[in-house]
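User: quick one - fold this with magnesium ion bound?
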Amino acid sequence: MKENTPLLQVQDLKVYFYTEEKEELRAVDGVSFYLKEGETIALVGESGCGKSVTSLAILRLIDSDGKIQGGKIILRGRDLLSLSEKEMREIRGRDISMIFQEPSSALNPVYTVGDQIMEAIILHQKLPRPQARKAAEEALRLVGIPEARKRLDEYPHELSGGMKQRAMIAMALSCHPKVLIADEPTTSLDVTIQAQILELIAELQHRLNMGVILITHDLGVVAGMAERVVIMYAGKVVEEGSRWDIFHHSFHPYTWGLLHSIPRLDIKQEKLAIIPGAVPDPLNFPSGCRFRNRCPLADELCLTEPQWREIESQHYVYCHHYSQVEVLKTRGFER
Amino acid sequence: MNDTPLLQVQNLKQYFPIRAGVLRKIVDWVKAVDGVSFEVSPGETLGVVGESGCGKSTLGMSIMRLYEPTEGKVFFQGQEISSLQSSQLKNIRRDIQMIFQDPFTSLDPRMHVGPIIEEGMKVHHLASLPEIRRRALDLLEKVGLGAEYFSRYPHEFSGGQRQRIGIARALALSPRLIVADEPVSSLDVSVRSQILNLLKDLKKEYQLTYIFISHDLAVVRQVCNRVMVMYLGKVVEIAEGEVFFSTPYHPYSVALISAVPVPDPDYEVKRIILSGDVPSPINPPEGCRFHTRCPVAQEICQQVEPVLEQKEKNHWVACHFPGSLSYKGQ
Ligand SMILES: Nc1ncnc2c1ncn2[C@@H]1O[C@H](COP(=O)(O)OP(=O)(O)OP(=O)(O)O)[C@@H](O)[C@H]1O
Ligand SMILES: Nc1ncnc2c1ncn2[C@@H]1O[C@H](COP(=O)(O)OP(=O)(O)OP(=O)(O)O)[C@@H](O)[C@H]1O
Ligand code: SF4
Ligand SMILES: [Mg+2]
Ligand SMILES: [Mg+2]
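Assistant: Sure. Structure tokens for the protein plus magnesium ion:
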């Protein structure tokens, strides 16, 4: 079973922030999932549910007003949370790389694209400049940037949005990481450009046999890209399963509601299902199940914490009433 | 529905100057909207789609006369409004209302919610003050917020709730036409359908007509009767909604539809990946503006600009080879 040991395991991760009034904001509160070599998983959830904080915690890049309060992040048997900052710097970029929604946050406007890619290559691969430049050019070519050599000497503002995204991907992949975290890599792009970038990521993932953690709120993107799906809500994972489980056989009322409320391109929906209410304030998460004040199945039991249950092989859900989710089919989501 | 259009737009152009140098001389123009013509019938929802920068918002703003159009005419209920003096625009500003993408910046943070909704009615002296108050409370109820929100500030609300306030404010003047510019794009996924359903319900109740600007084709399919596609300041296709989604004619429309991710792992589509980026609206390509990215372009496309023509009843397209690209089948 050796090849089945995950490449990366996140176990019971807790990341809390502290406001000026010393209030505790439990942004990520007991999140667990794993990533196998060469697979793509999706981390899905709405704004503020803790996706970015989870990925920043994996790289140990949490701001000083936040703290990793518990859990383990195990990369090939090593707990990253026990490493020194110096060891962590070696990991970033070499073993785990990240691309962001806004390329401008990753690309420094005052350096050329080439210099920025070369910096990582020189740091991790200890190559002399001329070879590093060659490798950088190769990286740009890999992501489909035409006239790669010329582009090396250009500044980020000289590139279009899609091109910047490609350059950032080139930078992230220049050292052939084992894990790529893509945090909303296409959210700010047009659909025709999004299609280009997603295709590129899928192709590179295959070619370099990377594990990819794709963070997105777009279930359409998930359906096309991910083998397994992790659904987050208000700092918790509420469901995890194969793509098929999640899309055809979901058990959590939130997953179910999301899938039925999103407008779909391929069919005309007379009336969209509605999840009532709004995402809770992170400083005042409800006790027990954090979805309970929006959930049509909620009752007194939901005032207590649900358990994390495996209901089918590799399909997990965090809900007291998961077995009743079928009821929603006839009853709908209105309470 | 009757046949006289509620709104007619004829060859509308909206250019923005690009200035440079110490003298801020005009060196070029952004041709944001470049000769757009269409009609809107009473009671319909016309979707305006296209990628970032194609001129959707500018079109909306020019119709509202928030910009002075560079050229072209706009008629509302048969009256030309593009030539009205700003002092004559007051009535038009009642009949046409806008809902914006960003509910966070479109509401005055220092005002209570109630007065935000009342403001327009007061400016237009629509009723006595107690009557205005009663209507504002009624509208709060209608958009699903309730009277208890009257004396709260916008920052106390979530994105979806703020969009509801924006909708109530737009409805306060009993408009005929609402231009909704990306009304759900900034909202959480689980809240979008609430707002979309609300817009649909209000349309029925108040017999509204919408111009619904969106880059999200899935949303457009669910709320619009007709779809108009823009590319680099031009209209490339106009069709009835279901016709558009089943048999789009313009290669750009086809590529756009094929690129939308569908939340179903079994959904199969021949994805048409367009190469390259959208060119700049300052120097758009000669001939067909889409020819630099078009998978079926021929030589003529580089030289001759295709005109918007009616290929089938109510199905307009501007392309030399309409219908030659499909996203269906393998
Ligand atoms: N530096 C910070 N200081 C305080 N709170 C923070 C900080 N970073 C994140 N948070 C809070 O942590 C929670 C989770 O944020 P996170 O950025 O992970 O959300 P997300 O799921 O990535 O959302 P989005 O889809 O909007 O990117 C939010 O409530 C956010 O306000
Ligand atoms: N006030 C302005 N001054 C100068 N240029 C402008 C102005 N407003 C818009 N533009 C330009 O006009 C073009 C069309 O912009 P517009 O905002 O109408 O596009 P859009 O289709 O609404 O895009 P998006 O989907 O990003 O909202 C763009 O190139 C934009 O940069
Ligand atoms: S006119 Fe030519 S270039 Fe333009 S869309 Fe049609 S086929 Fe493509
Ligand atoms: Mg995020
Ligand atoms: Mg716009």
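One thing worth noting: Chain B touches chain A through 44 residues (CB under 8 Å).
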